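$ ./design --mode recover --in tokens.txt
reading tokens...
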């Protein structure tokens, strides 16, 4: 099972399996806190796609979703998705960490759908 949480609200414990799924380092997060999670940039939208989305989030979101789905079909992204699915099998719950404020209108729902569709 995948759970989503903002990294700013994350209080790591020994048993947590947490993966940061944003491309940029989260502003204001200590190195000690960040060291408690994995950083998987391969499942993040490319820099170009992220910049396109942020030019006008409300207008560009549908096209962003379409293009991000295409990116997730590439070999490196498929390998990273498979790694997340393996973590889920071995740990039962994986926390996907993000710094985005509006999780609902970000890459996270697309990533969750790709994980649900992933057959490994």
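writing sequence...
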């Amino acid at each position: 099972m995948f759970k989503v949480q903002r990294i700013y609200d994350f209080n790591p414990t020994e048993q947590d399996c947490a993966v940061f799924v944003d491309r940029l380092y989260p502003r204001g997060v200590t190195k000690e806190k960040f060291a408690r999670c994995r950083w998987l940039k391969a499942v993040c939208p490319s820099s170009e796609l992220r910049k396109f989305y942020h030019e006008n989030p409300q207008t560009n979101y549908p096209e962003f979703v379409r293009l991000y789905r295409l990116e997730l079909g590439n070999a490196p992204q498929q390998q990273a998705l498979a790694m997340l699915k393996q973590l889920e099998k071995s740990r039962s719950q994986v926390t996907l960490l993000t710094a985005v404020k509006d999780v609902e209108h970000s890459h996270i729902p697309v990533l969750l759908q790709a994980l649900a569709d992933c057959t490994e």
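exit 0
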